[in-house]
Amino acid sequence: MQLDFFPSRSLTLYLAKMFVVRILAVLVMLVLVLMALDLLGNSGTILEPEGNGQAEILKYVSLRIPQLISRFLPYSVLLATLITLVTLNQNSEVVAMKAAGLSAHQVLSPLLLTAALISVISFGFNERIVTRANATIKAWEAVDYGPVPEDSGVRANVYLTDGENILTAAILTGAGDKIELTNVTWYARAPGGIISEQVRAPRATYAAPGWQLENAKSFDVGSAETQEIKTLVVGETLTPAQIDLQSIDPDGQSFWELSQTIDAFEAVGRRTTEMRAKWWHRISGPLSALLMPLLGSIAAFGLARSGQLFVRAVIGMALGFAYFVVDNAALAMGSFGGYPPFLAAWAPFFLFLLVGETVLIRTEE
């Protein structure tokens, strides 16, 4: 039996079923609690636009739940690991498995297999559902939960530069010459970056060249005067092709779409560090579930009667949460260019893989 990575079929199914049930229970509990807290803080804002009601609340819930599942699934795997292993330890089931000749890795193998399957499912869920929810909810938030133009290319919080000047828009729809900007602000800046004029408009379209602001209001910083302008053309050097590249939201694109975007940016010599780090993290992120049984394994071994079971569970939880802290910090550093993108996405994973193996071997093997 020592030469087999997995224990018997019955024991593998028993442990895997126990693990899956606890993952689902913890995940449902976390999502329900966090969704309730989220609604307490945002329901008033959602209902503020005229005509919004229960349907919009349900729409918000349907968009937020996939985000919460994606974000807290690894935490659920960690907590489920601790609950499962502590229960097995308290019931002396780990002792029985060890007495039958199973090694520590064989005891954990059903949990590792289950976590690997969850990682694959998580990747598919993120690509098919979460990315679309991200794009939709960002566009909806940009218009303060009002009506959003129906368009598959909706992007939110667009920030563009035209030399010293800045053009921002709450949402962008369409592509090419048919791009339409909503809730637009134009900042005209003097040399040195000082804002000399601010122009706001509800809508802007491509004027070939430039972007035509309609029903705009101009505020002159020097004279502190406000002026209404029916139409105004700004940003004459900004082309639709440049805007298509500058207004990309990596969180709203799938893995393959993001790959094409990175290639397009690199073809014109644009910086891709942040997008490349997020691209690598699309793989390493879901795989974090695979680490949780290993990091929480310290709770499985050692006699429950020794009085150290609670301490072991706390150590396992600390290792798991330390991974998430280091992972988020490394991804932030990668986005700012402090780390190479590959290192930012994968270094925490391999570091804690080695930490988990070391702890497991030193405490049991």
UniProtKB/TrEMBL annotation:
<keyword id="KW-1133">Transmembrane helix</keyword>
<feature type="transmembrane region" description="Helical">
    <location>
        <begin position="338"/>
        <end position="361"/>
    </location>
</feature>
<protein>
    <submittedName>
        <fullName>Permease</fullName>
    </submittedName>
</protein>
<dbReference type="Pfam" id="PF03739">
    <property type="entry name" value="LptF_LptG"/>
</dbReference>
<dbReference type="InterPro" id="IPR005495">
    <property type="entry name" value="LptG/LptF_permease"/>
</dbReference>
<feature type="transmembrane region" description="Helical">
    <location>
        <begin position="68"/>
        <end position="87"/>
    </location>
</feature>
<keyword id="KW-0812">Transmembrane</keyword>
<keyword id="KW-1003">Cell membrane</keyword>
<feature type="transmembrane region" description="Helical">
    <location>
        <begin position="107"/>
        <end position="125"/>
    </location>
</feature>
<dbReference type="GO" id="GO:0043190">
    <property type="term" value="C:ATP-binding cassette (ABC) transporter complex"/>
</dbReference>
<dbReference type="GO" id="GO:0055085">
    <property type="term" value="P:transmembrane transport"/>
</dbReference>
<feature type="transmembrane region" description="Helical">
    <location>
        <begin position="309"/>
        <end position="326"/>
    </location>
</feature>
<feature type="transmembrane region" description="Helical">
    <location>
        <begin position="279"/>
        <end position="303"/>
    </location>
</feature>
<keyword id="KW-0472">Membrane</keyword>
<dbReference type="GO" id="GO:0015920">
    <property type="term" value="P:lipopolysaccharide transport"/>
</dbReference>
<dbReference type="InterPro" id="IPR030923">
    <property type="entry name" value="LptG"/>
</dbReference>
<feature type="transmembrane region" description="Helical">
    <location>
        <begin position="20"/>
        <end position="40"/>
    </location>
</feature>
